[in-house]
Specification:
It is built from two helices and six strands. It is an alpha+beta fold. A four-stranded antiparallel beta sheet has the order 2-3-1-6. A two-stranded antiparallel ribbon has the order 4-5. A hairpin with a 6-residue loop joins strand 2 and strand 3. The radius of gyration is 13 Å and the shape is globular.
Length: 87
C-alpha cells in the first residue's frame, strides 16, 4: 500500500471530485482532504492510499496535470516528524 500526497488542490475540491479523478488509475483504499482545524476551511491538500502499482500509475499520470484550474502536485507521502509539543 502506498500513501500519496496530493497538493495544490483547489479549495472547491470535494472528496467525490478527487475520487473521480484518481479512480481511473486504480483502487482507492482511503482518501482524506485536510481542513484547517481552527476554521474548518480546506487547506488545499490531501492524502490517498492505493495499492503500490496503482499509486505509481496515478502519480505518473496526474502529477502536474490541471485540475479545476490548478496544477496538481502528486508524490509519495513523507512521514511527518512529531516534535512532541502540543498546541
Amino acid at each position: 500500500m502506498t500513501k500519496l500526497f496530493v497538493g495544490n488542490l483547489p479549495f472547491s475540491a470535494t472528496e467525490e471530485s478527487v475520487r473521480a479523478l484518481f479512480a481511473p488509475h486504480g483502487t482507492i483504499d482511503s482518501l482524506a482532504l485536510i481542513n484547517d482545524r481552527d476554521t474548518g476551511r480546506p487547506r488545499g491538500f490531501g492524502f490517498i492510499e492505493m495499492p503500490n502499482a496503482d499509486a505509481a500509475r496515478a502519480m505518473q499520470a496526474l502529477n502536474g496535470t490541471n485540475f479545476e484550474g490548478r496544477d496538481l502536485k502528486v508524490s509519495e507521502a513523507q512521514a511527518k516528524e512529531r516534535n512532541g509539543r502540543g498546541r
